[in-house]
Amino acid sequence: MDQVLKALADGTRRELVERLVAGPASVGELAQPLDMSLPAVMQHLQVLETAGLIRSEKVGRVRTCHLEPAGLRMAEDWLGRQRTGWEHHLDALGDLLQEGDSPS
Amino acid sequence: MDQVLKALADGTRRELVERLVAGPASVGELAQPLDMSLPAVMQHLQVLETAGLIRSEKVGRVRTCHLEPAGLRMAEDWLGRQRTGWEHHLDALGDLLQEGDSPS
DNA sequence: ACTAAAGTTAAGTACCCGCTTGACTATTGG
DNA sequence: CCAATAGTCAAGCGGGTACTTAACTTTAGT
User: Which residues touch strand C (CB under 7 A)?
Assistant: First the structure.
């Protein structure tokens, strides 16, 4: 969880994810539009892979990366739980107020 | 977006959010279970508020904080878009493969 | 075999983050 | 008024993070 959100907290890494939504890509393809050195991109990819957000296999001399939806779903679920929890709390509060509204 | 995910990337701040799901709380109440100094908690709260994840008003000498679901929902939506985007991509790919499967 | 392409590793640098302590400001109750 | 409570401001410290460049490894093309 911590790793997933830390990974997505970086704008560059989110760009990488957004690119990978369109389909798998090699390290070079991912690096090309990114105005930074290739090793920098590598480090970002490693962070994403350690977090379980992407997976990559190397065949020949080219490493191909693809998205792993499980990681995204985990983060999404956590956010959803907190949000709906709070909204239900508000609902319950609303009911309580309405109930106590006309006590005569 | 960047601010929201950076804010949630920290474990302490996620604890604060989880606490606030149960309802509003004062700075002191939030700090009490957190084995760190009060200014540290303040800084975390400021990060959360700047990110739009919580809101707080000060009445008298006590500041009360409450959750703001909009921020959570924004992050949740982004994650959902990426994930479903990728899943649809996989579906389309599956269809393509199946279509080309028996070309005779 | 020789060279270019695609990554990878290692080391170093500059900056950002979380936390601390200490001093300070407002409110509240006696 | 006096002191305790609840929070805030400011400076500083240590570790982590995002890059960089330079050197190296492996594979592919000719």
Answer: A 26-28, 31, 38-39, 42, 58, 61-63; B 6, 9-10, 12, 36-37, 39-40, 43-44, 47, 59-61
Q: List chain B pLDDT tens, one digit each, 104 residues.
A: 899 999 999 999 999 999 999 999 999 999 999 999 999 999 999 999 999 999 999 999 999 999 999 999 999 999 999 999 998 888 777 777 776 665 54
User: Residue A90 and residue A49: Cα distance in Å, rounded?
Assistant: 38
* Cross-chain residue pair A69–B83, CB shorter than 8 Å: yes
3-state secondary structure of B60: coil
pTM of the complete model beyond 0.85:
yes
CA–CA gap between residue B30 and residue B44 (Å, rounded): 11
